[in-house]
Design brief:
single chain; alpha+beta; Ribosomal Protein S5, domain 2; Alpha-Beta Plaits; 2 domains; eight-stranded mixed sheet; four-stranded antiparallel sheet
Length: 349
């Protein structure tokens, strides 16, 4: 065993997926808590793998490597570790060596912070359980990881579960909390476990306004109360659609949420527009295809210009032909990412 290996006290490695919100969270209160509840599903092919090594006890410092190279993202990790130190009392006693890589390009329109902080939080939660002598497969591990992930990136708390997750207090479940997400699995219609997500790349450039700034603009937004009420209603209607297999209601709510998110951006002060002309063209073509082909496709959008085309497994051949035939001309360099609902995080041994 090398000298470096002898210095390693604890180690953990996880793969964690990104997620796509169907009911959007926009606006925060307190520390990384949502103004409104959200509902999402994790992706299968878009994930981050992260390993954490705790070295010999010392005043804490962090070595962070992304895609094999030293990264200044380590400064954000330092601040994150400070923010969670009260939850993990041992965190200041070790040096950290963290290695991370994504399965997707950083500018792919996929929430890399969700998968990154989800993977890191799972590593930290597993190490915490090991240090305290608790079983690593205890259900509390997932709640712990979700809460730790939230403090790094709000949407990350939903990435630590398979399938669907809800974050934020709602009347749907007593267990819903602002501090962590919960998994939603009982009674979901099997059709929705065949969801596909074609991510249509309109623009891979850096957003003109960060999500953090966008969240802050909700604090004094003229439509803040209406938006919160809308999200509560939509999450109830969407959950019922997931239980009953109601595709029409699913499409109605999901598209309403996507456009409402961007409406909040366009009516904030200052306002901003992240959609591009090609974003609008793709939306128009998706709706026209749904009407003419009678195939239940829909779209959602995160805080950016790229379009997530949602469809079902049974329609895969028809939808992929539609993408190739009609949509690629409106994607940057004809690029799109083929993904689907995922099975959640995986511990790597």
């Amino acid at each position: 065993m090398s000298g470096i290996e002898k210095n390693i006290h604890w180690t953990s490695k996880w793969r964690c997926p990104s997620n796509i919100a169907l009911v959007k969270y926009w606006g925060k209160h307190d520390f990384q808590k949502p103004m409104n509840p959200s509902l999402s599903f994790v992706l299968q092919n878009a994930f981050t793998e992260t390993s954490v090594e705790l070295l010999k006890e010392a005043d804490r410092k962090v070595e962070f490597y992304f895609e094999g190279a030293a990264s200044d993202f380590g400064e954000r990790i330092e601040k994150y570790l400070d923010s969670i130190s009260s939850h993990l009392p041992w965190i200041n006693k070790y040096n950290f060596r963290i290695r991370s890589h994504n399965s997707f390009p950083h500018s792919a329109g996929i929430a890399s912070s969700a998968s990154s902080f989800g993977a890191l939080a799972l590593c930290l939660a597993e190490i915490d359980f090991a240090i305290s002598g608790r079983e690593p497969d205890h259900p509390d591990l997932w709640l712990k990881a979700s809460e730790l992930a939230r403090m790094g990136s709000g949407s990350a708390c939903r990435s630590v579960y398979p399938g669907f997750a809800i974050w934020g207090q709602t009347q749907l479940f007593e267990s819903c909390r602002d501090e962590h997400a919960i998994m939603v699995y009982e009674g979901i219609h099997p059709m929705f476990y065949g969801l596909r997500d074609a991510i249509l790349m309109v623009d891979s450039g850096t957003k003109q306004v960060s999500s953090s700034v966008g969240h802050e603009l909700m604090n004094d937004h003229i439509f803040q109360r209406s938006r919160i009420a809308q999200a509560h209603q939509n999450i109830s209607e969407l959950y019922l659609a997931l239980l009953t297999g109601n595709q029409e209601k699913f499409i109605e709510v999901v598209e309403n949420e996507a456009l409402s998110l961007h409406a909040m951006m366009m009516t904030s002060n200052p306002s901003f527009i992240l959609l591009k002309p090609n974003s609008l063209e793709l939306i128009s073509r998706i709706r026209r295809f749904r009407e003419k082909a009678k195939i239940p496709v829909s779209f959602t959008i995160d805080a950016g210009p790229n379009i997530h085309l949602l469809y079902f497994k049974k329609d895969e051949l028809d939808v992929k032909a539609f993408i190739e035939r009609e949509l690629l001309d409106f994607c940057e360099n004809g690029k799109w990412i083929d993904d689907r609902i995922g099975k959640g995080p995986m511990r790597i041994t």
